[in-house]
Specification:
The chain is built from 13 helices and 21 strands. It is α+β, with helices and mostly antiparallel strands. Strands 1, 2, 7, 8, 9, 10 and 20 form a 7-stranded mixed sheet that branches. A hairpin with a 3-residue loop joins strand 14 and strand 15. Helix 1 runs parallel beside helix 5 and helix 9 packs across helix 12. The longest helix is centred in the last third of the chain and has 21 residues. The two termini are 20 Å apart.
């Protein structure tokens, strides 16, 4: 059978594209169910978009590339679609929107939209090869041991990145890009916990499980969100965010009192009861174990009354500019997304089509566009999938 469009990857971007790409669309995936990363996202509630989604919330070698798709299919468009399907949702924090009930509601929405559009879905189907033909493309697939070559005019690569391989993630989309001589931006894990060597972890391990508000900075970018100490290093939203900007050898700076005039607070406590220990006083403002640790990092002990202003300044500098040098990250195993991917210079920002290969499209995470934590990557999936789908539908009309 000849299809107009074959989409590889039944994730967020692929399903969105299938719902908009017009007639005779086939969506193929090797998984046993569609939208598996959607299902596990947001603790099972799916942080499906962010009310504040804008181009500045995305990383790319070309920061302008995402503007076209994001402006033509916005977060408000997807929110309207969620409302049309009667899905209850709420804002958790910082514009992050979650389903009230289950992430499966978003999968059901996408399947319903695909069914309405007449798109066909084939699961447990492996893609063996994609080849250019005179009429378009030949896609060889295998299902239940049976191989078949499918003809189509358009192929959409929506296979995602390398993150969370236990969910079936592979580098297949990058292989297709290389096959067709599309350039790639080096890939790396992003939105991922950072790890530290034993020299640092010896002191940090006793703090595992502690969390605190923090401002975490790296390479000129800062995020004010929660910080979590783990047995391997640091995690929490602020660390996941800054991990996209971190590179090997770079330090990260942690401010554990971002909204507090710490020196004034410590001076007040010194006046009120100067006979208390430095770490104990700091523990009024921070988690107690963390406060004792930071007092030790600053090399300060004894009564707070015995500390001169210069010593207080040193303590404040330690708490607000705690510098740590990660030795790595937890890698693709726990990374929420993959940074880098298909170089946007090779793609049309309006259609997501390869400039030199008509009919070949790349959407979603496989492209060098990576969002912040908080629903931004789902919005890129919706916007890029919609953009490619609309372009295909117009082209085939």
């Amino acid at each position: 059978m000849r299809y107009e469009t074959i989409i590889l990857g039944a994730g967020a971007a692929g399903m969105m594209c299938a719902a908009h790409a017009g007639p005779r669309v086939l969506l193929v995936d090797h998984a046993k169910a569609p939208g598996e990363k959607i299902r596990i996202s947001g603790g099972g509630r799916c942080n499906f978009t962010n009310m504040y989604a804008a181009p500045e919330n995305f990383l790319s070698q070309n920061p302008h590339f995402c503007k076209s798709a994001l402006s033509r299919y916005t977060q408000w468009d997807f929110i309207d679609l969620v409302a049309q399907h009667g899905i209850a949702y709420h804002e958790k924090t910082l514009g992050q929107l979650f389903c009230d009930h289950s992430a499966k509601d978003i999968i059901a929405l996408l399947l319903a939209e695909m069914e309405k559009a007449g798109a066909e879905l084939r699961l447990r189907t492996s893609v063996l090869s994609v080849a250019k033909t005179e009429r378009g493309f030949a896609v060889e697939v295998e299902q239940d041991g049976k191989r078949e070559v499918l003809d189509c005019a358009n192929v959409v690569i929506a296979t995602g990145g390398k993150s969370i391989p236990k969910m079936g993630a592979t580098g297949f989309g990058y292989q297709i890009a290389k096959q067709f001589d599309l350039p790639l931006i080096e890939t790396r894990p992003a939105l991922v916990p950072l790890t530290f060597g034993e020299d640092i972890m010896t002191d940090l391990k006793p703090l595992a499980g502690l969390s605190a508000p923090a401002r975490v900075s790296c390479n000129g970018t800062s995020f004010d969100e929660g910080l979590l100490m783990t047995h391997r290093g640091l995690s929490g939203p602020s660390i996941l965010q800054v991990s996209s900007y971190w590179r090997e050898g770079d330090p990260v700076s942690v401010n554990l009192a971002p909204e507090l005039d710490l020196k004034s607070a410590l001076k007040t406590k010194r006046q009120e009861n100067g006979r208390r220990q430095v770490g104990t006083v700091l523990g009024d403002l921070l988690p107690a174990r963390l406060a004792q640790h930071l007092a030790g990092v600053a090399g300060l002990s004894g009564n707070i009354a015995d500390l001169a202003d210069t010593a207080l300044d040193h303590l404040v500098a330690t708490v607000t500019g705690w510098s740590l040098k990660p030795n790595g990250s937890e890698g693709y195993r726990t990374a929420e997304v993959t940074l880098g991917g298909v170089n946007t210079d090779a793609l049309s920002s309006k259609t997501m089509e390869a400039k030199e290969i008509p009919g070949l499209y790349f959407i979603g995470e496989v492209v060098d566009v990576t969002g912040w934590l908080g629903g931004y990557n789902f919005q890129w999936a919706w916007s890029s999938g919609w953009a490619a789908g609309q372009a295909i539908q117009r082209r085939d009309a």
